[in-house]
Amino acid sequence: MNICYRVELSEAERTELQAMLSGGKQAARTLKRAQILLAADAGVPDETIAESIAVGGSTVYRTKRRFVEGNLERALSEDPRPGAARKLSGPEEALLVATACAKPPAGRARWTLELLAGEIVRLTQHESLSRETVRRRLCENALKPWRQKMWCVPKIDGEYVARMEDVLDLYAEPSDPQHPVVCFDESPVQLIGETRQPLPAAPGQIERVDYEYRRCGTVNLFVFLDAHRPWRKVNVTDRRTAKDFAVCMRELVDVDFPQAERIRVVMD
What we know:
Layout: H1 11-23, H2 28-41, H3 46-53, H4 57-69, H5 72-76, H6 90-101, H7 113-123, H8 131-140, H9 158-172, E1 181-194, E2 213-226, E3 232-237, H10 242-256, E4 264-266
């Protein structure tokens, strides 16, 4: 036989619940419990509360019981719901991560969720494994084996290390005006123009630029950077030819460092 619980709110609790309902920034279940408590405090029968708030009678009964046996916080919250046990144990999850980081099977460019699920089933005693379980465990470990990023992976050999050490030794040297160290590189740049006039920024609104653009050709940038002092220079050319390179080197010697005995240029 169910016990009849009587809800009697204090003025502070009543005010807190009313503020919660007017704010509307709580979970829907929490707001419904607040409505139940206020209605019960006003003496509304349980059946009427359940019908008006669109909840079951058991929800009304549990909410009132948790308030009487506990407090307002307990009545508004809910006990942790028992979920299903994790499909993969700790060692099995580690095996999944190691597999995803290994080379894919022969004939495959990369691992897929289905391939990984099948491989874990083969390596463990699981009879089946869903792709969603695999996806979640990989997401928890920040792994996306189906994605790739192009990168320049250098071949590390004795010659590479020796040249690297030569460059690092130059950078580690103290500044010497007679023997400056200048880093040099170049890069092509595409020139674009607007097809429509941008809308200027305003208070509360950033500048808006149309997604369409007009191609205005390309130029080449020759960039110089002193490794030991805050100096840099950019030369803009129409092309990237041997003659353009030679002109930049001549300008570096005659204009930028005319008093230097030797200029050591670092470039790839």
